[in-house]
Amino acid sequence: LPIFNPLPVINNAVSNIICSMCFGRRFDYTDKEFTTMLNLMSRGLEISVNSHAILSNLCSWLYYLPFGPFKELRQIEIDITAFLKRIIVQHRETLDVENPRDFIDMYLLQVAEEKKINSASSFNEDYLFYIIGDLFVAGTDTTTNTILWSILYMSLNPDIQEKVQDRKS
């Protein structure tokens, strides 16, 4: 019997909900770029926690070492950054002021408004990149893991599972 692993399906679903809110679109589960980003996020988090790269939290200069997990982590960051910045550029180029599609459009409209009032405003595209990066990477990971732990908890505690099912009705 194959082992049941809900991670890929839940990870895809959670990430697609976040993508719908932030990017105004969802990705097909077989979309190569989307699956590559999900794999990069998982690998980046794995490296950050389960390798010597964790030491870069103590000594930030270690992050720039040109070998091993440090180099791989930097490449992952470069790839995810390029993906997110490409989406921001596409939104800027196709922005319809009268019909905002999602969070990015609304943020870009707010950037334009803020620039009229205060040129030193913190509303800018750099900050937008960090916000959607946090939502996309951390939001996907945190929500996916919360759901997976909930599934495990309910599978180990049928009485709790029953209560959840009763509440759902």
The radius of gyration computed from the alpha-carbon positions, rounded to a whole number of angstroms, is 19 Å
* DSSP strand tally: 0
Percent range of helical residues: over 70%
Residue fraction in strands: under 5%
Count the DSSP helices: 6
* Straight-line distance between termini: 32 Å
- What is the approximate shape? globular
| Helix and strand run | HHHHHH
The overall average pLDDT, rounded, is 92
For the report, how would you describe the main beta sheet? none
Helix and strand composition category? mainly alpha
pLDDT under 50 segments (min length 5)? none
Task: Describe the protein.
The protein has helices at residues 7-23, 32-50, 68-94, 103-117, 125-156, 158-168. With 169 residues, it is mainly α. The longest helix is centred in the C-terminal third of the chain and has 32 residues, at 125-156. The mean pLDDT is 92.
Q: Which helices and strands, and how do they pair?
A:
Layout: H1 7-23, H2 32-50, H3 68-94, H4 103-117, H5 125-156, H6 158-168
Question: What is the compact description of this entry?
Answer:
This protein is mainly α and 169 residues long.
Give descriptors for this structure:
6 helices; mainly alpha; 169 residues; 0% strand; globular
